[in-house]
């Protein structure tokens, strides 16, 4: 029996749903051995339970991670530059 050739990486379809803590850890952290770290992140990553297993959509998890990154960048910017960018503070000072 002839063996089917594996599709090139670019042609492989992305899974619609990733099931199981180990698979989710592999997706998020790049290491399935970090599966225990997934449980505290359930709400933040938008994970659901299906048949007693954790599951998540890759797009949803990436969107949640990107939103957290933006929030952290904005928070660190505010901590070092004040609550508003310098130009906005200058304009506000001119209006007074």
Beta strand %: 5-15%
Alpha-beta content class = mainly alpha
Number of domains: 1
Rg, alpha carbons: 21 Å
Mean pLDDT: 84
Query: For the report, how would you describe the main beta sheet?
Result: 3 strands, antiparallel
Give the helix level as a range of percent: 40-55%
Distance between the termini: 82 Å
| Strand order of the biggest β-sheet | 1-3-2
Total of DSSP H or I helical runs spanning 4+ residues = 4
Number of strands: 3
Characteristic key phrases:
96 residues; mainly alpha; 3-stranded antiparallel β-sheet; 4 helices; 9% strand; elongated
Brief sketch in words of this structure:
This protein is mainly alpha-helical and 96 residues long.
What does this structure look like?
The protein has 96 residues and is mainly α. It has one domain (15-95). It is 49% helix and 9% strand. The protein is built from 4 helices and 3 strands. It has helices at 21-29, 42-45, 58-81, 86-95, and strands at residues 18-19, 48-50, 53-56. Strand 2 (48-50) and strand 3 form a beta hairpin. The mean pLDDT is 84.
């Amino acid at each position: 029996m002839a063996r089917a050739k594996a599709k090139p990486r670019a042609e492989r379809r992305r899974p619609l749903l990733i099931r199981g803590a180990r698979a989710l850890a592999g997706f998020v952290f790049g290491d399935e051995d970090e599966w225990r770290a997934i449980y505290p992140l359930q709400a933040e990553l938008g994970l659901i339970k299906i048949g007693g297993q954790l599951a998540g959509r890759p797009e949803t998890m990436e969107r949640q991670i990107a939103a957290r990154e933006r929030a952290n960048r904005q928070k660190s910017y505010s901590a070092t530059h004040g609550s508003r960018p310098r130009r906005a503070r200058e304009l506000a000072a001119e209006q007074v």
